[in-house]
Amino acid sequence: MGRVTVFGPREIYLGWQYALVHPAAGLPPRRPVPPQPQQVDAGWLVAQRREEARLSRPAWAGAAVCLTLTGLTLWLGSDGQLDLALTGLGVVVFAALAGLGAAAVWRGWRGLRADVAAEALRVEAVSAAQYSELFAAQEEHARRYRTWQASQDVYAGQPQWYPVALPDEMDRVDVVGGTLAGWSALFTTVAVPRLAAGAEVTVVDLSEGAVAKDLVSVAHSMGVRPLVWVLPADLGRFDLGVGLSPAELADVLTATASASTAPGDRGDVARDHSLLARVCEVFGDGVEVAQVTAGLRALGQVGDPREDIRAGVLTAGQLERLNTLFGRGAVERVVIERAWALEARLRMLEHLGRDPAPLPRSRLRVVAAEAGAGGFGGVVVGTYVAVSLTHLLRQARPGQPWRHTLCLAGAERLDTDVLDRLTAACESTRTGLVLAFRTAPAHVRERLGRGNAALAVMRLGNAEDAKAVSEQIGAEHRFVVSQLTDTVGASVTDTAGDSYTSTVGTADSWSGSESVSTTSGQSQGSGQSRADPAPFGGQTNSRSRDVSRSHGTTGSESVTAGINTSTSWGWTTSRAVGGSESLARTSQRSREFLVEAHELQQLPPSAVIVSYGSRTGRTVVLADANPAIMALPTVTLRSPEEVRQATAPRVAPAGSPPPNLGPPPQPQDWRKRRRR
Question: pTM, whole model, 2 decimals?
Answer without folding.
Answer: 0.76
